[in-house]
Amino acid sequence: MSQTAGIRVGCCGYTVSRDAYYRTFRVVEIQQTFYQLPQLKTAEKWRAEAPPGFEFTMKAWQLITHEPSSPTYRRLQEAIPEGAKERLGSFRPTPEVHEAWKRTAEFASALGATVIVFQCPAGFQPTPEHVTNLRTFFSQVDRGNFRFAWEPRGRWPEELVAELCKELDLIHCVDPLKEDCRTEGTVYYRLHGRTGYGYVYTDEDFRELCDKLRPGRVNYVMFNNVEMFKDAQRFLAYLRAHELSDRESSTLL
Question: Is the model's pTM score more than 0.70?
Answer without folding.
Answer: yes
